[in-house]
Amino acid sequence: MSGNGGSGSDAASADRRPNELLTSWFVRSGWSKGELARQVNRRARQLGANHISTDTSRVRRWLDGENPREPIPRILSELFSERFGCVVSVEDLGLRAARQVPSATGVDLPWTGPQTVALLSEFSRSDLMLARRGFLGTSLALSAGPSLIEPMQRWLVPSPPAAPEEPDSVPTSRARGRLSRPELDLLESTTVMFRQWDAQCGGGLRRKAVVGQLHEVTDLLQEPQPEATTRRLFKVAAELAELAGWMSYDVGLQPTAQKYFVLALHAAKEAGDRPLGSYILSSMSRQMIHLARPEDALELIHLAQYGSRDCASPRTQSMLYAMEARAFANMGQPGRCKRAVRMAEDIFAEAQEWDEPDPDWIRFFSEAELYGENSHSFRDLAYVAGRSPTYASLAEPLMDKAVRLFAGDRDHQRSYVLNLIGMATVHLLQREPERGATLAAQAMKEAKKVRSERVNTRIRKTVDTAVREFGELSEVVDLTERLAMELPETAEAV
Fold first, then answer.
1. Is residue 371 part of a domain?
2. SS3 per residue for the chain
3. CA distances from 392 to 15, 80, 219 (A)
4. Same structural domain for residues 94 and 223?
5. Burial 334-370 (b: 16+ CB within 10 A, else e)
6. pTM higher than 0.90, yes or no?
7. In a domain, 403, yes or no
8. Pair 382, 494 in one domain
9. 217: in domain
10. CB-based burial of residue 455 (10 Å sphere; 0-12 exposed, 13-18 middle, 19+ buried)?
11. How many angstroms separate the first and last alpha carbons of the chain?
12. Sign of torsion over alpha carbons 280, 200, 251, 24
């Protein structure tokens, strides 16, 4: 029965023990054995593994301790990760992880310029061709823990010196490259424009355009260019790949987002831009917090801080401390969280007197953003500490400042909505459901102006919390009805 995803060996069945880890995840999922079997078969067909034909008896054997062959363990990992909104690894399910080659993991990639360009080109082309929501993501697996952190640490390993170019190896006209300085300036300004669109409209509106621009830049990087031009092109590629990753994260394509972030970090290394690399690592850290992996988030932030401690501007350092606070909050470490919040505030004050202009990618980190991040840290602490009103009260004044500052900022519409939602959750924590429902309704209205599955998901979770705790309140009943009518169930990735 090689076509059903089984392990095959009857001799081992006598020593088989029930898989308690897989059983625990399965019971909490609420799925039936038949439903899980159908999902495995559907995902296998998407991957092209048409030989997989799972049924309820096979699922029962997995729960009893049978270890299925690949790609079943990876499919199960993806299905449970999506079900619970966090990374559920093969090991977490009590299954043996098949050793993957570096290219299959999507993270442990060669740190060389030509291969970085080739991987960027290949992945962006695949994304453009297979951009239907969820399809590309099913061919990837999220990495977490040591399999994510250890490859990222190589970001700090010095690159070997490049071999000197042969002056007569290519015609002089091509060696100079075909890009003029004004054309390079235009590429950089286009990246700034894309970033503005994302902040205004969410990741779902222009994601495919960013991916297309990234693919065009990789074409330019495959042509002979002067060294200075190549570095600038790698910097553009790094910023576009980070933005493609951020937009993918915003619309819920988590494996795709992680792959772009990793490729962006490789490109930043080739550009020799360590502050940009630290920013990319902070985006990866934010994704890990979203996926309930705060320990991984903290490792990534510490790597970013260590790698840019002598070259990052005060604004960038402040942002990194704010993200460190978020990680500590979600780990339930209030003392370290509060210290990181203070550091973020103190260093941000220095940024006001910083003479040199900041790069465009960090200009989003305004006073409003600082208040928003720090308030979310205290809000997260409140949840981790068992819905503590003490930490909620610390979050409220900061969240209020963030909401007020973002309210008049049309350039950061998504941030305004996210902080409205945050304020709603704070009031729910403070047992003020009427105020929480009012803010959630306001966030719902504003959310229609952006295309962000992240925003929609947070609103739904906030409404679910209100229903669970204050379901009979008329304001909450009205909120659930409004949610059903006004908020779309899915956001299409483009």
1. no
2. CHHHCCCCCCHHHHHCCCCHHHHHHHHHHCCCHHHHHHHHHHHHHHCCCCCCCCCHHHHHHHHCCCCCCCCHHHHHHHHHHHHHCCCCCCHHHCCCCCCCCHHHHCCCCCCCHHHHHHHHHHHHHHHHHCCCCCCHHHHCCCCCCHHHHHHHHHHHCCCCCCCCCCCCCCCHHHHCCCCCHHHHHHHHHHHHHHHHHHHHHCCCCCHHHHHHHHHHHHHHHCCCCCHHHHHHHHHHHHHHHHHHHHHHHHCCCHHHHHHHHHHHHHHHHHHCCHHHHHHHHHHHHHHHHHCCCHHHHHHHHHHHHHHHCCCCCHHHHHHHHHHHHHHHHHCCCHHHHHHHHHHHHHHHHHHCCCCCCCCHHHCCCCHHHHHHHHHHHHHHHHHHCCCCHHHHHHHHHHHHHHHHHHHCCHHHHHHHHHHHHHHHHHHHHCCCHHHHHHHHHHHHHHHCCCCCHHHHHHHHHHHHHHHHHHCCCHHHHHHHHHHHHHCCCCCCCC
3. 51, 31, 50
4. no
5. beebbebbebbbebbeebeeeeeebbebbebbbebbb
6. no
7. yes
8. yes
9. yes
10. buried
11. 41
12. positive
* Statement to judge: residues 255 and 109 lie in one domain: yes
Name the residue type at position 179: L
What pLDDT is stored for residue 45 in this prediction? Answer: 76
Residues 33, 134, single domain; the answer is no
Tokens found for residue 294: 């705060």
Residue 4 has pLDDT above 50, yes or no: no
Give the range among 170-184, 302-316, 382-396 with minimum mean pLDDT.
170-184
pLDDT in tens, 53-79: 889 989 999 999 888 887 788 889 888
Structure tokens at 321: 């401390």
Q: 70 and 87: one domain?
A: yes
Is 252 found in the same domain as 108? Answer: yes
**Look-up: residue for tokens 């819905």?**
387
Q: How many domains does the chain have?
A: 3
Question: Could you say which of 66, 84, 99 is where a domain stops?
Answer: 99
CA quadruple 91, 85, 396, 427: dihedral positive or negative? negative
Does residue 91 share a domain with residue 109?
Answer: no
22: containing domain:
2-99
> What gap in Å lies between CA 317 and CA 346, rounded to an integer?
10
Tell which of 272, 300, 332 closes a domain: 272
**Do 88 and 121 belong together in one domain?**
no
Asked if residue 82 is part of any domain, the answer here is: yes
Residue 83 has pLDDT above 90, yes or no: no
Tell me the one-letter amino acid at 152.
M
CB of 71 within 8 A of CB of 49?
yes
Query: Which of the given ranges, 97-101, 155-159, 369-373, 480-484, has the highest pLDDT on average?
Result: 369-373
